[in-house]
Amino acid sequence: MAKHEALDAVFVALADPTRRAVIRRLGEGPASVSELARPFAIALPSFLKHVRMLESSGLVRTAKSGRVRMCILDRERLAVVDGWLDEQRRVWEGRTDRLSAFVTDPQEQS
Amino acid sequence: MAKHEALDAVFVALADPTRRAVIRRLGEGPASVSELARPFAIALPSFLKHVRMLESSGLVRTAKSGRVRMCILDRERLAVVDGWLDEQRRVWEGRTDRLSAFVTDPQEQS
């Protein structure tokens, strides 16, 4: 997955309160799909769509253990969001640096 | 806008490479809609849809100045993403703390 596709998929996955709640729950440790579904008043097939979307974004990995599907959070994948935010901050800081250079020595700017 | 609605709107807005590029460009300073549109090989009406989505998420504010619509980035709104990520980290750290408490003194856990 290219970097921008990874970001697209991660941001789409995070744009839903149910999926964010699943990520939060998985931050406490692995859980089965049925444990994850329990707090939500939605039908299992709809819940499974959320799990599949989280899986295809790479935020969640799942594995069958007997008849139970276990889910774990992939924090590395969530780190792409931190990476993108850091990139924006570098842009802002570059701007601030240019502004202070201008204030300190306006002659240097042509 | 409730907190989870703000997050939904911000994450949807960020789930597109054109919109992320606009945010990055606005990190360098305010720009008009036509300046923002220039690097993209898409029709202006399509580009305006992106701008409107950024505006409705609160990430971008726009104002008409004569015949020109100027756009500025609202970094405060982007900070909701940092807030959400911090919340997840606190969940992970809470988990790590519980694990170390267990390792240090398993008798304390019932």
From TrEMBL, chains A, B:
- Give the transmembrane ranges: none
**Residue intervals of the HTH arsR-type domain:** 1-93
Tell me which SMART domains the record gives.
HTH_ARSR
Question: PANTHER family from the xrefs?
Answer: SLL0088 PROTEIN (PTHR38600:SF2), TRANSCRIPTIONAL REGULATORY PROTEIN (PTHR38600)
Specify the protein name.
Helix-turn-helix transcriptional regulator
